[in-house]
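Lecture 7 notes: from sequence to structure.

We start with a single chain of 307 residues. Read the sequence below before looking at the structure.
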Amino acid sequence: MKHAFSLDLPADYRVQDVLAFHGRDAESVAEQVGPEQIRKGMLLDGLPVALTVALPRNDARSAACLADIAAPATGGVPPVLAGKIAAAARNILGLRIDPAPFVQFARKDALLGPLVARQPGLRIVQSATVFEALTWAIIGQQINLPFAISLRRTFILQAGRQHADGLWCYPEAADVAQLAVEDLTSRKFSRAKAETLLRCAQLVASGALELDEREDNPIPLICKNLLAVKGIGPWTVNYALLRGYGFADCSLHGDVAIRAALQRLLGEDSKPDMARTEQILQQWQPHRTMAAAHLWASLADRPNESA
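Now the structure, written as tokens:
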């Protein structure tokens, strides 16, 4: 079953940022990134979906999207599923946060102003789904980026499913919940990381942990419930908010790359500690997410430090 749609893009859209984020794993099993398109495999409502996003050429200002859904073509795509596919495409393309308010704010800031001026049009590119962002945050806790990318690939192969066209689909909570801890620890995951992933997946699959943002489940409540899960701390929550929800005011004071970027920006001999980093970031509320994006981008020549 096929579902086609398009998404409008802003005039200053930076295609290369999107390609770079989704193409970080040269051996990826769930993403295929070329110069003009991204193909992404994911499980949505239990169905394997291969989403192709054709990126614009020249002065074109829209992205053409085509979802190949592994389901019988009876009655068309359900509206709920169509909405989830469109949301995933917006996330993949980094369209959740409008950077304009932050840019206006940053112009008046002595530290951020010159940094932002050097990176016009920068956006936050996200994971396709909130669950993907959360599990990626857990996988990436306290390890370097290349190792995290390798573990992510293993995680997809263990818990995901393969689309008919060969692309692997990033798993949903119900798929991960079926794994045993040993399925991951036998493949270089620490026991603590494996247990946290499975604990989180089991809670989400059972409905005990709600990830959907709604009026009765706002971001502050989601944060509180995530922090109550053993193995999930403030950095993981903030990173999941950034990559999953496109939340505009995430504080990444525990992120080593943010601290490295601040060291460079401040011209100091060592990284600021977490407490001082948190204080620095607080002055950029309610735009700390975009501030983090620009700090990460300033480390582009140090790819192993950038999240």
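The two ends are 35 Å apart (CA to CA). Keep this in mind for problem set 3.
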